[in-house]
Write a structure and sequence with these properties.
alpha/beta; binds zinc ion
Length: 357
């Protein structure tokens, strides 16, 4: 095979097939030889449902994968920033660069965004050779491995979240959800100057990992009481975290309805709330809290300019140690088992190796 690729044909239906090696037609594009692709919750959702808002089909299968690192294999004639052999992390979404949002500097909102492994047409990184614009490749410093390079994608989401939250030194932050993105939000919040970062999750073992990953700078962790109302859990967290007025900032990286409800009762008056996690599309929402507390409520969608750069810089400086998040590495041929591993909630981040020679 020239370019073995893991294609999804529908729910629970994936095959490794040959696809053509991508040809560079735009002189600003490059081809990357993929080293690793990471698995996240959205991949599992695709594996189980065949898509999120748009779906793959028997007629239109799609190469999966969007968190990836690799080596530059070929470059377009106008590429000046990269040469073959450069090690890079991949930012997997390419905006049109022409619309109002792109011009306003918020390209992640581009309505014409082409995002890797997003049906029906944009193929993902679970292949040998992957084509993308050169400026969406970020050179990895020598002290960052390919495996760590994959984690620049979720870290960029964490960086984007704390930028949206506008965290200032000394502020107290609570993160709902201690999965990969929640951990990255917590680590980034700490680097942006939060004096106290606390995390909430329903799984004790995730919180134990959070404490080991984030170290003493992250104050406390807590689990909700399932018998409690959101108001009662908010009171519990205020005590558990010793934040009598509530946190200045809450980032929800869980997407769970009950987390959003609890957060509204937990947050301090005048606080800022950022919705990073995606769950049900419509929920019951205690909107009076937003009025009465004069909350700032913001969304966070993927990442924007500078988020990958800062992520690489933080990891290279040793400030955020992402290596311990990698809990399993599976060969390319076992991509579906990698999705199953994540589905079962095993470990933190599972990686899929690129195609071997
Ligand atoms: Zn993802
Ligand atoms: Zn655009």
């Amino acid at each position: 095979m020239e370019n073995p690729s893991v294609l999804l044909y529908g729910p629970l239906k994936a095959k490794i097939e040959d696809r053509p090696v991508p040809e560079i037609r735009d002189p600003y594009d490059v081809v990357v030889r993929v080293a690793y692709t990471g698995v996240c919750g959205s991949d599992v959702h695709f594996w189980l449902n065949g898509g999120i808002r748009t779906y793959v089909s028997e007629e239109q299968p799609l190469t999966m994968g969007h968190e990836a690192s690799g080596t530059i294999f070929a470059i377009g004639t106008k590429v000046t920033t990269l040469v073959p052999g450069d090690r890079v992390a991949i930012e997997p979404g390419y905006p049109c660069r022409r619309c109002v949002d792109c011009k306003a500097g918020r390209y992640n909102l581009c309505p014409s965004m082409k995002f890797a492994a997003d049906p029906p047409f944009t193929h993902g990184t679970l292949c040998k050779y992957f084509l993308l614009p050169a400026d969406f490749c970020y050179k990895l410093h020598d002290n960052i491995s390919f495996g760590e390079g994959v984690l620049m994608e979720p870290l960029a989401v964490g960086v984007h979240s704390v930028r949206q939250a506008n965290i200032r030194p000394g502020q107290r932050v609570v993160i709902f959800g201690a999965g990969t993105v929640g951990l990255m939000c917590a680590a980034a919040a700490r680097e942006f100057g939060a004096s106290k970062v606390a995390m909430i999750d329903v799984f004790e073992r995730k919180l134990e990992f959070a404490l080991s990953f984030l170290g003493s700078l992250v104050g406390r962790v807590s689990t909700p009481n399932r018998e409690f109302t959101p108001e009662q859990n908010a009171e519990k967290f205020i005590k558990d975290f010793a934040m009598p007025e509530g946190p200045d900032i809450i980032i929800d990286a869980s997407g769970a309805e009950v987390s959003v409800q609890t957060a509204m009762h937990l947050i301090k008056r005048g606080g800022t709330y950022v919705q990073t996690g995606m769950g049900k599309r419509t929920i019951n929402f205690p909107i009076s809290e937003v009025c009465e507390k004069e909350l700032t409520v913001k969304g966070c969608f993927r990442y924007g300019a500078g988020d990958f750069d800062l992520s690489i810089s933080l990891v290279s400086q040793g400030k955020i140690k992402v290596k311990s998040l990698i809990t399993k590495v599976l060969p390319f041929e076992e991509a579906t088992e990698a999705w199953e591993t994540t589905k079962r909630g095993e470990g933190i981040k599972t990686l899929i190796e690129g195609v071997k020679d």
